[in-house]
């Protein structure tokens, strides 16, 4: 009996020793000891080198596990804007190593593509939303309420009039990254060649200048987009038309206003008479579209000095500085306020938020990125210093780093500044209005037919 107990007792002692060793290893973190040292109690302790290696491995593993990837989508006003955003993203990632941002540029039908990506379940975490499309995105529940992520003190730093398009039922769905206003850009050298000493004061004078410049220099005096309903609105409102607002089918009657019909006819005829009819007579056009002179957009046409005047926003300023450095502001070109109508001077205001996907898996990280871009530091670097557009956050109006071109546009006096928003379906309406206007400009339909088409668009869109 004693012979049997002795091996059994030895077995229990061995088992207890193994279990105690395992337990000690678990509590100690289970490090691998390749060069142990003896402790005063006789147990093996890891060297300082081993401890450092263990902590480093743990931190690296934790960092990999906590790495968050967010997608940021926007359109681009050219290579300049893309480069500026990429620079800011790299700075953000350096300061937030656990967050990686993938920048995606969508060049065509931006808002339609973003909405489609929601249906496919692949929408980006952060994306632009123009003021004209905000009501649709809010209605579809696509935007995370920014008022649930941002402190009120942070929100109050932004200009209130820029926030209005992004509000509904007491909630705010985004903060503007910047803003711009339409202004007249003109080539001083071509003006001099044409004998013109100052920019046009009225819309009629703008047309007169365009004709004179073409006659004297052989170059088109003015470039406009085919369509471009939002570019036409300042002409209508400055001549006494009410601001367009389409909320119900009956609001199509806006197009029956005599001032609207008169000014819309005038605007369409800028191209119809200035380009189409002139060329039919074998004469050089005094009004063109960018594509008519081999340019991708107004900024390119103006920068290449293929046209004397364009109406565009602040986003054109950094593009000219970056892509056409030898075309000098103040020396070769300048900016003036939009021409006045019979009832004063009116301009359009454009603003875009960095919206956060309501379905994002990383709302806190997405907000951290948005806050970085929109906050004082982001506005200073991306908007003020880079000269991208105008800062949407108050307090930078007199910043010494604000570009003189932007400072000048801020000095212009307007009777009305209209934020780009025509009602709950502004985006789709804008596109279809512009299609009808473009068809009339090309001569594919009469002006009356275009107006009737635009009325029908309102009735159909707002009956749904």
UniProtKB/TrEMBL annotation:
PANTHER family: ARABINOSE-BINDING PROTEIN-RELATED, DIACETYLCHITOBIOSE BINDING PROTEIN DASA. Pfam families: SBP_bac_1. Residues 32-52 have a biased composition (Low complexity). It comes from Pyrococcus horikoshii (strain ATCC 700860 / DSM 12428 / JCM 9974 / NBRC 100139 / OT-3). This is MalE-like maltose/maltodextrin ABC transporter. Residues 31-52 are annotated as: Disordered.
